[in-house]
Design goal:
This protein is mainly α. Helices cover about 85% and strands about 0% of the residues. It has seven helices and no strands.
Length: about 160
């Protein structure tokens, strides 16, 4: 594997994962916004409901959620791959373990969509709770990730 990637490129690979994750944190916040609008649309009436329906928040929420799921899975795998390429090992610690947990959490959250479409309120509340936890963990990951980036820059 080492011979496939030029040595001059390897150090720069370290910055793709953090950049992607910061973008995905923003995407997660937007997904939360669209999710709240979907929820508001469900309980609205009259003109307010007509205006909210025009925003197509349900479609946007599904689309952005799908993008977020794919981005997180690929970002997690990519971050692990780059760490292994550059160090010959993974560093078992809170950042890796929480990142893996987040990837599982978003998969569980997405898997609840068919149940929510069938009107299962428990699935909706679980989806909301899982995603709220996910955004909190995402913020924590952003801080610990910047510590890692700082160490990489110190050794650059």
């Amino acid at each position: 594997m080492d011979s496939l990637i030029p040595e001059s490129i390897k150090p720069w690979l370290n910055f793709g994962h953090p950049l992607l994750m910061w973008v995905l944190l923003a995407v997660a916040l937007y997904a939360g916004y669209t999710g709240m609008k979907v929820r508001k649309t469900r309980s609205a009436t009259g003109e307010e409901k007509k205006e909210l329906v025009k925003g197509q928040f349900r479609t946007k929420h599904f689309q952005i959620g799908s993008l977020l799921l794919a981005g997180m899975v690929l970002g997690t795998l990519g971050g692990m791959a780059v760490t292994y390429i550059n160090n010959g090992k993974l560093f078992l610690g809170p950042h890796l373990l929480v990142g893996l947990g987040m990837t599982g959490l978003i998969a569980i959250s997405a898997s609840l969509a068919p149940l929510m479409q069938n009107g299962k309120d428990w699935a909706r509340y679980t989806h909301i709770a899982a995603n709220t936890l996910l955004v909190g963990l995402f913020a924590w990951q952003a801080v610990t990730g910047m510590d890692i980036v700082s160490r990489i820059l110190d050794n650059f």
